[in-house]
Write a structure and sequence with these properties.
The protein is of the alpha/beta class. The chain is built from five helices and five strands.
């Protein structure tokens, strides 16, 4: 049986670099994928993402703007500690339009989701724009989109190779 892979792109296109995941999704959806790989631009639809996680994928790759203090456009691969999700508070207040990946994972877990492997492809944002919002990515973040697409493709390829390798 083929492993199932969900590439869950998230972000808000009206808040500058927060739209990174959405832009990566646009590029990823132009690629050819095997039928067991699903690319979804969840945008700000946190509850849709939560329900999507209930399907029990073998690998879930989140794509999102991820402030960690490096130069704008820096890409990260982060593997969250699943133990943090297991030990999280299930009763946290949830806002369906402003959920970060950990909150979504915690909510999905509280609803019975089972996680096998989770990765986050994050990009250091430069700006979320002024109070009234901003369409479009900053130059360094826009320049990182193609590299993020290649990074996601390589993670999917690696996962598919690992699961189809013969056992000796």
């Amino acid at each position: 049986m083929k492993p199932t892979i969900l590439i869950a792109c998230i972000g808000n296109i009206f808040l500058g670099d927060d739209g990174f995941g959405c832009e990566v999704a646009r590029h990823l959806n132009q690629c050819e994928w095997p039928d067991n790989v699903k690319v979804v631009d969840f945008g700000i639809r946190g509850f849709d993402l939560t329900y999507g996680l209930l399907d029990g994928h073998d690998l879930t790759i989140f794509v999102d703007a991820t402030p960690r203090g490096d130069a704008p456009g820096t890409l990260y691969i982060i593997e969250p500690e699943l133990a943090e999700i297991e030990n999280s508070q299930n009763g946290q207040m949830v806002d369906g339009h402003s959920m970060n990946p950990m909150k979504v994972l915690c909510l999905a877990k509280s609803m019975g989701a089972q996680f096998k492997k989770i990765l986050l492809v994050g990009c250091e944002p430069g700006t979320f724009g002024p109070e009234e919002g901003q369409l479009g990515l900053s130059e360094p973040v826009a320049a990182a989109v193609d590299e993020a697409v290649k990074l996601v493709q390589s993670l999917v390829e690696k996962s598919l190779q690992e699961t189809t390798a013969p056992v000796l």
